[in-house]
Amino acid sequence: MATGSGFESKIVHVKAPEADAASDAVAVEAAVKKIVADVRAEGDAAVRRYAKQFDKSDLEVFEVSMAQREAAVAALDPQTRKDTEFAIGRVRAFAEAQLGTMLPLEIEALPGLHLGHRVIPIHTVGAYVPGGRYPILSAPVMTIVPAKVAGCAEVIACLPPVAHEAMIAACHLSGADRIFRVGGAQAIAAMAFGTETIPAVDKIVGPGNAYVNEAKRQVFGPVGIDQLAGPSEIYVVADETGKAAMIATDLLAQAEHDIRTRVGLITTDRALAEATLVEVERQLETLPTANVAGAAWRSNGEIVVCADEAAMIAYSDHIAAEHLQVHTRDPQATAKKLSNYGSLFIGELASVVYSDKCCGTNHTLPTMGAARYTGGLWVGSYVKVCTHQWLEKPGVEAVAPPAIRQSATEGMEGHRRAAALRLS
């Protein structure tokens, strides 16, 4: 645990997470390195081989045809389609509003010195859509819709061959230009370097398992990535006004994602902490997904009692949770004091599940403490803000002399000559 944050002596664990299991990161890294190298060298042949090995897929054609896409949409339950389109509409509207805040800039910083920037869409984006334990229809919505709003010329989606047909429909409705039934590290490598059938992209976005995450790490550089995301996380900060039953429900809702999900309560009220501990166990008795949520709770569940609000805020900022709910007497005031989170849910009516599914904010968020330095996926992830400059004679007269002197001081004669050339 980091020291010097001021909370260490002011917190007590009512329930601490178990020690981390031994990491298999070395084995994952080695396996992914071979997959990436093989796909880069062999293209479709390697993709096909690994699809058969990992997904038991014998697909000869990876791309989903327009007829297959339309059939998947037609097969959707009518209410499911309406709900998916509702989510698409909310995500699109929020992304459009966000993009509206990103404006081109032109200023005359000094007479004759013109500076500015343009907001330029990334040309080709690859959206990885995980298969996972559940067919999460909001997953492609979150990665594809903002790309289309940003104006990306081509958005391709890759999803495992075993993914539910409804996921194909969600990719189509979200606006994917092309859809491929390719999953895992081989999909990341294919999008990074291109194959005979899968185009190389400029940036890869979207969550996945440890192999997908490691593949994104290994291909980063020639291709951009959004982030390296670990298992999902939810924490709640609460005072004595918090409701144990509601908090327990929200923690378990997120815990059913994966047995490695991190869930926790940070509170100033010991009675609430103890009541929540009891309530979690009570609700697990009737939760159909308790085999997953219960394992996550036992391994990674955490309840911390803090001596005061300052310690609660400090510990929350130390955790830097992916999802952070605020259940206090004045949640808006508490929210203003918090700095590190992927997405903030202010007040007890704001549940993580609404953002996970359909309210409009993006659910692809930083985990593993990354919220200390970054936010989540948003429309700005799909554009480049690129600067430019142009000078008139008065501008050259203002900037050339200091540039000449600085170049001379640094011993960079070529720079000095280039700076002086325009002054004459």
UniProtKB/TrEMBL annotation:
<feature type="binding site">
    <location>
        <position position="323"/>
    </location>
    <ligand>
        <name>substrate</name>
    </ligand>
</feature>
<dbReference type="InterPro" id="IPR022695">
    <property type="entry name" value="Histidinol_DH_monofunct"/>
</dbReference>
<dbReference type="GO" id="GO:0051287">
    <property type="term" value="F:NAD binding"/>
</dbReference>
<feature type="binding site">
    <location>
        <position position="257"/>
    </location>
    <ligand>
        <name>Zn(2+)</name>
    </ligand>
</feature>
<dbReference type="GO" id="GO:0046872">
    <property type="term" value="F:metal ion binding"/>
</dbReference>
<dbReference type="GO" id="GO:0005829">
    <property type="term" value="C:cytosol"/>
</dbReference>
<comment type="similarity">
    <text>Belongs to the histidinol dehydrogenase family.</text>
</comment>
<keyword id="KW-0520">NAD</keyword>
<keyword id="KW-0862">Zinc</keyword>
<feature type="binding site">
    <location>
        <position position="254"/>
    </location>
    <ligand>
        <name>substrate</name>
    </ligand>
</feature>
<feature type="binding site">
    <location>
        <position position="257"/>
    </location>
    <ligand>
        <name>substrate</name>
    </ligand>
</feature>
<feature type="active site" description="Proton acceptor">
    <location>
        <position position="322"/>
    </location>
</feature>
<dbReference type="GO" id="GO:0000105">
    <property type="term" value="P:L-histidine biosynthetic process"/>
</dbReference>
<feature type="binding site">
    <location>
        <position position="128"/>
    </location>
    <ligand>
        <name>NAD(+)</name>
    </ligand>
</feature>
<dbReference type="GO" id="GO:0004399">
    <property type="term" value="F:histidinol dehydrogenase activity"/>
</dbReference>
<dbReference type="InterPro" id="IPR012131">
    <property type="entry name" value="Hstdl_DH"/>
</dbReference>
<feature type="binding site">
    <location>
        <position position="209"/>
    </location>
    <ligand>
        <name>NAD(+)</name>
    </ligand>
</feature>
<dbReference type="Pfam" id="PF00815">
    <property type="entry name" value="Histidinol_dh"/>
</dbReference>
<feature type="binding site">
    <location>
        <position position="415"/>
    </location>
    <ligand>
        <name>Zn(2+)</name>
    </ligand>
</feature>
<feature type="binding site">
    <location>
        <position position="415"/>
    </location>
    <ligand>
        <name>substrate</name>
    </ligand>
</feature>
<feature type="binding site">
    <location>
        <position position="232"/>
    </location>
    <ligand>
        <name>substrate</name>
    </ligand>
</feature>
<feature type="binding site">
    <location>
        <position position="186"/>
    </location>
    <ligand>
        <name>NAD(+)</name>
    </ligand>
</feature>
<feature type="binding site">
    <location>
        <position position="356"/>
    </location>
    <ligand>
        <name>Zn(2+)</name>
    </ligand>
</feature>
<feature type="active site" description="Proton acceptor">
    <location>
        <position position="323"/>
    </location>
</feature>
<protein>
    <submittedName>
        <fullName>Histidinol dehydrogenase</fullName>
        <ecNumber>1.1.1.23</ecNumber>
    </submittedName>
</protein>
<feature type="binding site">
    <location>
        <position position="254"/>
    </location>
    <ligand>
        <name>Zn(2+)</name>
    </ligand>
</feature>
<keyword id="KW-0479">Metal-binding</keyword>
<dbReference type="InterPro" id="IPR016161">
    <property type="entry name" value="Ald_DH/histidinol_DH"/>
</dbReference>
<keyword id="KW-0560">Oxidoreductase</keyword>
<feature type="binding site">
    <location>
        <position position="410"/>
    </location>
    <ligand>
        <name>substrate</name>
    </ligand>
</feature>
<feature type="binding site">
    <location>
        <position position="356"/>
    </location>
    <ligand>
        <name>substrate</name>
    </ligand>
</feature>
